[in-house]
Write a structure and sequence with these properties.
The chain is α/β, with parallel strands linked by helices. The protein folds into three domains: 227 residues, Beta-lactamase, CATH 3.40.710.10; 108 residues, D-Ala-D-Ala carboxypeptidase C, peptidase S13 (D-tyrosyl-trna(Tyr) Deacylase, Chain: A, 3-Layer(bba) Sandwich); 69 residues, no CATH class. 29% of the residues lie in helices and 27% in strands. The chain contains eleven helices and 20 strands. The strands form five sheets. Strands 4, 5, 6, 7, 14, 15 and 16 form a seven-stranded mixed β-sheet that branches. A hairpin with a 2-residue loop joins β4 and β5. α3 runs antiparallel to α6.
Length: 458
């Protein structure tokens, strides 16, 4: 008799688990998103039986929530204290501050070699006695062996900063930060970082015909040694700003190095070119990145695609980093952790992909394992906080709902996954993936689910 009662209770729970909360169904209906285009898994942290399990085994495009797999695999495979190195070699003789030869930079995939970090390193090279370089600056990028499909392959916008491709010697994300400041009918353009050999020419005006939150009506392009910024910004809406990547990696490195080297009092007679580090010469100086535990905060909180791709390639690197090796390394780690994800498809580990796939159930399994990991604090701290920072700062800004969530958005994809701290003190794992042409309108349904869970009393 007890067994029959237990079976009936289990069946009743299974039926209820398949039913979405009314508020979620209502919001999906408003957005014209059918339930068949949604994958949802909700379970209490530490428990195996889900509270809600809806189309949970279907492989779906997760957009940037795929970064959860990449960053957690990074913590487990590389460990939180891992640091990337970048080496400087002297290919020639240094005599009284003058290098009679080339200065070679060799990269190993540092995702966060920013302008600030690079400037400090160049100052160190000056302190080590290097003042003048009679030869060239040689860039050794060979550690990443990536078959480039072109930055336009994803959405035909090659100059967008999110489309920057992986680079073993990535400097400052190869990005330019543009600020457009209204000045009457014109706009003043400020561009960072400073670029040696380039002149910024602004042909941007202010327009009363443009809405404050409309699409960008200006563009940045390269014409010889001029950086032209043309178009319009809305009148009376304050400063406009944007990030772009119109320069090739060699041109960008050359322009940034030239400006910074001159600023720290250095001189260069040669040019910047691609090449190889000398085998015989010893390392003159080594720069170390911030630890992985810090890097993943930038990746997850701000959904930095190029940093995620740099980390993904590092996961399988030995003497050479390839996408195939990294994919194999992640799959091997999953197998060793007894996590079988047969539907998993990896392309770059960032979610900036039309082909990557994972199921809501397995994304929840990943978060479940991470919650019991020695590195649980590092992963959760890297996630955006609802209503406070990162890509979740605009959700539940009035407070009352606490959680750490990674979000994801592509054309036709809207996803959210992470940890919710409910009012009853319980911690919930929540995964909600939408794959549908109307996915952009699905945020209200995701928020409705989070609000519903936060008020549970059981």
């Amino acid at each position: 008799m007890k067994r029959l009662i237990g079976l009936s209770l289990l069946l009743a729970f299974s039926v209820s688990a398949a039913q979405l909360p009314d508020t979620v169904k209502q919001e999906l209906a408003k957005a014209n998103i059918p339930a068949e285009s949604v994958g949802i898994e909700v379970r209490e942290a530490g428990k195996t039986t889900p509270l809600i399990s809806h189309r949970t085994e279907q492989g779906m495009n997760p957009a940037s929530t795929m970064k959860l797999l990449t960053t957690y695999a990074g913590l487990e495979i590389l460990k939180p204290a891992y640091r990337w190195k970048t080496e400087a070699y002297l290919d020639g003789k240094l005599d009284k501050g003058v290098l009679h030869g080339n200065l070679v930079f060799k990269g190993y995939g540092d995702p966060k070699l920013t302008i600030e970090e690079f400037w400090l390193w160049l100052r160190e090279l000056r302190q080590r006695g290097l003042r003048e370089i009679t030869g060239d600056i040689v860039l050794d990028r060979r550690f990443f062996a990536v078959d480039s499909q072109g930055t336009a392959a994803f959405d035909n916008k090659p100059a967008r900063a999110y489309n920057v491709e992986p680079d073993a010697l990535l400097l400052n994300f190869n990005a330019l930060h543009l600020r457009l400041i209204p000045d009457g009918t014109q706009a003043i353009a400020l561009l960072e970082p400073e670029l040696a050999g380039f002149q910024v020419i602004s042909r941007v005006n202010t327009s009363t015909a443009l809405p404050c939150k409309g699409e960008d009506a200006y563009q940045t392009r390269i014409e010889g040694h001029n950086i032209l910024i043309e178009g319009s910004i809305p009148f009376g809406c304050g400063e406009a700003q944007d990030y772009s990547s119109p320069l090739t990696p060699d041109a960008y490195f050359s322009a940034v190095f030239g400006a910074l080297w001159r600023e720290v009092g250095g001189q260069l007679q040669g040019r910047v070119r691609t090449g190889a580090a000398p085998n015989a010469a010893g390392v003159f100086s080594t720069h170390l990145s911030p630890p992985l535990s810090e890097v993943i905060r930038d990746i997850n909180k701000f959904s930095n695609n190029v940093m995620a791709r740099q980390l993904f390639l590092t996961l399988g690197a030995a003497d050479l980093a390839t996408t195939a090796q990294s994919t194999a390394a992640v799959r091997q780690w999953l197998t060793s952790a007894q996590m079988n994800f047969p539907e998993l498809v990896l392309e770059n580990g960032a979610g900036l992909s039309r082909s990557e796939r994972i199921s809501a159930q397995h994304l929840a399994d990943l978060l479940q394992r991470a919650a019991n990991s020695p590195f649980a604090a590092e992963l959760e701290a890297s996630l955006p906080i609802l209503g406070m920072d990162g890509t979740a700062r605009g959700r539940f800004k009035d407070g009352g709902i606490a959680g750490h969530f990674k979000t994801g958005s592509l054309e036709g994809v809207k996803s959210i996954a992470g940890y919710l701290h409910a009012q009853n003190g319980k911690k919930w794992i929540v995964v909600f993936i939408i794959n549908h042409p109307n996915a952009k309108a699905g945020r209200a349904a995701q928020d409705a689910l989070i609000e519903w869970i936060s008020k549970l009393n059981q």
